[in-house]
């Protein structure tokens, strides 16, 4: 569903609270060089008892409540009707009135999705501070759609039963622009790889959110619109926006999606990063009077024995900029300096997570033959056998993530595979 769009010229901004954007502009793409762009604020306001009464009085007219729409709505962006019914004890709900662009008067009323008739939407919106005289430019609405069962897909996005059919996006049971775009990319790449008779691109759960998304879909399926929440990933210390290029550019290059200009920019950045880390770890500060004076000036504790610049940077109060002020380290582009700081401060935690990934990888590498007959493995619980037969996991790792497959079932499966392997060896 979506909320109404209202006319920016009909609002009373003195009754709402301005919400400004980030001070430091960050680019979506590593190739973008934009550092400044005109910013305009969003506005915060709230529903109240009058708004709620109008909605409650008209619930029978809401497609989501009167049976017209049968599907389950998206959990993370419920309609205003759903919020009022589900959270009946709440006296108010916050709304963000967001400009849709610099060259339009349309404002998006975030938090106010509705499938009530247009005249009811206008009526309840006009009870809200700042929106008393609002003009509605488009009414909100909800739609109901059907989808495939993603358990029918492989991790490449190809249909298990129909060779050459790749499926992506909302049709796989997801909701969201990024979810759809990311799957489209994967399905497109793998369709092309198949035509070229090349290895498919399969991203693991530790390599990218797209890896988590596709693994969740094809392993667990979904009975409500699936959203890629970051909390679904177990390796969030590794899956950061700041290192997306370091994680994925080589993979993109291998399938022909990274042109020379991007690749050269990327390798230059990566070598600068590696060189800097090398220099910082091999430059040692002696505990002499000059160094101690500099440290005092930077507001950090003195050192008793020699310390590398990298170890100094690990201190929470230290930044690369401070190292530059006091010691002769070269100036770096901001994105590289940021990477250096992240590496220095989180190295211990990141390495620990990498070890966890390696441990999990062992299970991912234990492949399961596609023709295995789960129903004939008597020691498996019947629920596990049924689920395994339906999902047809490619590895023990994937099998262990299927809901209904217990650690005991995983052990049984590993023994069964070992027995099969020995039998094959002996014959
Ligand atoms: C009202 C509403 C509000 C939403 N708000 C948000 C939001 O704020 N944020 C967010 O992230 N997501 C939002 N979503 C979800 C998001 O828009 C969708 O999940 C996403 O756009 C789906 O993309 P897709 O490419 O999978 O499908 P679509 O964008 O539906 O693309 C499918 C395309 O296939 C075409 N097509 C269908 N049949 C055929 C055929 N036989 N031959 C040729 N072409 C065909 C269709 O015309 C369409 O262009 C919203 C969805 C709705 C409905």
UniProtKB/TrEMBL annotation:
Organism domain of life: Bacteria
InterPro entries assigned to the protein according to its UniProt record, in alphabetical order: FAD/NAD-bd_sf (IPR036188), GIDA_C_N (IPR049312), MnmG (IPR004416), MnmG-rel (IPR002218), MnmG-rel_CS (IPR020595), MnmG_C (IPR026904), MnmG_C_subdom (IPR047001), MnmG_C_subdom_sf (IPR044920)
Residues of the tRNA uridine 5-carboxymethylaminomethyl modification enzyme C-terminal subdomain domain: 344-415
A molecular function (GO) term: flavin adenine dinucleotide binding
Key words of the record: Cytoplasm, FAD, Flavoprotein, NAD, tRNA processing
tRNA processing as UniProt keyword: yes
Pfam families, alphabetized: GIDA, GIDA_C_1st, SAM_GIDA_C
Segment forming the signal sequence: none
Entry similarity comment: Belongs to the MnmG family.
Subunit structure: Homodimer. Heterotetramer of two MnmE and two MnmG subunits.
The protein, known as: tRNA uridine 5-carboxymethylaminomethyl modification enzyme MnmG
